[in-house]
Write a structure and sequence with these properties.
Layout: H1 3-6, H2 9-22, H3 30-62, H4 65-101, H5 105-132, H6 134-140, H7 148-160, H8 162-177, H9 181-205, H10 209-231, H11 249-258, H12 260-285, H13 292-328, H14 332-359, H15 361-366, H16 373-386, H17 390-405, H18 409-435, H19 438-475
Helix pairs in contact: 3-4, 3-9, 3-10, 3-13, 4-5, 4-7, 4-8, 4-11, 4-12, 4-13, 5-7, 5-8, 7-10, 8-9, 8-10, 9-10, 12-13, 12-18, 13-14, 13-16, 13-17, 14-17, 14-19, 16-19, 17-18, 17-19, 18-19
């Protein structure tokens, strides 16, 4: 028999009042909570995006589009590392929120501690991969003969910062879930500001080119990592011990399952970038643009789009601990309220982004260096076609993290796979056969529309289910 169904309604209300005093996630105004959690998260993600965008701007101004093509080629390596950091960080964050909602502090502590150990392991692993296997990686990522030396220098230096990069991104999610979103924002901000200061010095003063940009990035990552580590003894919701640091397979498996949506999203991005690079190299060579112009231009477009995606992901990540806590506490009405509010704000913001991409593409392109008319022509087409329905993509991102927050990794994974792998990759392989290099651009809006339809279908079913559970809870 379900003991909850026979529990007196007065006792349930009493327990909820006690819970309210312990954690404001259960009662504070949703819009206020999302503002509190999402804004620092958005800033953190925007700052993270700036690492690559600032490099592209200064490299474009100081080296030219071949330098930017090289950093775009190395970008999949960075995204793969980010995938592992997000899987551990977002998984541990969801694990923490769900455990605290169930008042299981011991599990929450074990989850955070294990996540830190696993993050450190992956950091060292990627350092080794980036140095030892760089030749093979660059070939897979679509390097061209003209950009090879630049790409080799960039990946070698970037690999050195991987332990700090992965640990920082993992800890960032955990710190936010612990109720310190401002500190999480600061950890990313200090590194990005340092990178912005050092980039022009390394490139224009010391004339170090692509190597200088990579060194500036790594220094910023190391500083951010050190600041993040300083937070570890200051966790508010848990108390870490040596015992909790011992790896427990069951805990690590659960964390990874909760974070698998974030992992798949990033890995899917990597697969897409590799397919795009290979497609642009092949069909670009058959066009008037050549291979390197499309590689550089579309790479910039995708990184600029990270700004819009960062806002969508930041809103969703800010809502995640609120959704996770209230789902664990069986407050389903607040779960729906939080998700609905985040979706509305996300769609509004990404709509503005869409207008900017359609109306002012040349102004954005000029930030990355003054190139010839042929380059500008393809870059403007890339913004206007590839990002035509970027607003729909934000809904898919929100919905994926929503399912992740309520402990449904299967649906979260389905949504994460849908846009990038199920729809975009086939479109990238099919459309260029009919439309040449421009077919690569048409693949973007095609995938966005199809993924939106799938996400809407899954969300509508889940919303109906949660409404029914909420009504049953009120009756009991």
């Amino acid at each position: 028999m379900d003991t909850e169904s026979v529990e007196p309604k007065e006792e349930i209300q009493k327990n909820e009042k006690v819970e309210t005093k312990e954690n404001p996630l259960g009662t504070e105004k949703v819009s206020k909570l999302i503002k509190q959690f999402a804004i620092p998260c958005i800033i953190s993600l925007l700052v993270s995006s700036l690492y690559n965008i600032v490099d592209q701007i200064f490299i474009g101004q100081g080296v030219g589009y071949l330098g930017n093509a090289a950093t775009n080629i190395v970008f999949p390596f960075i995204v793969i590392a980010m995938a592992f950091s997000f899987m551990i960080g977002d998984g541990a964050s969801a694990y923490l929120s769900l455990s605290l909602g169930k008042k299981d502090k011991e599990s929450a502590t074990k989850g955070i501690a294990n996540a830190m150990v696993v993050s450190a392991f992956f950091g060292v692993l990627f350092l080794i991969l980036g140095i030892v296997f760089r030749e093979g990686l660059l070939k897979v990522f679509g390097v061209t003969e003209a950009s090879y030396e630049y790409a080799k220098d960039y990946i070698t230096i970037i690999a050195v910062g991987m332990p700090f990069f992965i640990l920082t991104n993992s800890l960032n999610s955990m710190i936010r879930a612990d109720g310190s979103p401002k500190f999480a924002m600061i950890t990313m901000l200090v590194g990005a500001i340092l990178n912005i200061i050092l980039d022009p010095i390394a490139i224009f003063v010391l004339h170090m080119g692509v190597k200088g940009a990579a060194i500036a990035t790594v220094i910023g990552q190391v500083v951010s990592g050190i600041v993040s580590i300083l937070y570890i003894p200051k966790f508010k919701s848990i108390t870490l011990t040596k015992e909790s640091m011992k790896l427990e397979f069951k805990t690590v498996k659960k964390i990874c399952s909760l974070g698998v949506s974030s992992f798949i999203t990033q890995i899917a991005v990597t697969v897409v970038i590799i397919v795009i690079n290979q497609t642009l190299t092949k069909y670009g060579a058959e066009s008037k643009y050549g291979s390197d112009i499309p590689l550089s231009a579309l790479g910039i477009v995708m990184k600029v789009n990270q700004i819009v995606n960062s806002i969508a992901i930041g809103l969703a990540a800010g809502a995640q601990p609120i959704i996770g806590f209230n789902y664990g506490a069986k407050k389903y009405e607040r779960v729906l309220q939080t998700y609905g509010f985040a979706v509305k704000v996300g769609l509004a913001v990404t709509f503005v982004g869409t207008i900017i991409f359609q109306v002012f593409p040349q102004a954005i392109i000029n930030l990355f260096g003054q190139e010839d008319e042929l380059y500008n022509e393809f870059a403007k087409m890339s913004f206007r076609i590839f990002l035509l329905f970027v607003m729909l993509n934000s809904f898919q991102i929100m919905s994926g993290i929503f399912f992740q927050a309520i402990g449904n990794p299967v649906k979260a994974a389905i949504l994460s796979l849908s846009r990038q792998i199920v729809f975009l990759v086939p479109a990238l392989l099919i459309l260029p056969r009919f439309f040449g290099v421009n077919g690569t651009l048409y693949a973007g809006p095609t995938a966005d529309c199809l993924a939106f339809i799938l996400a809407s279908t899954l969300v509508i079913r889940e919303v109906k289910k949660l409404k029914k559970m909420s009504e049953e809870r009120e009756v009991n």
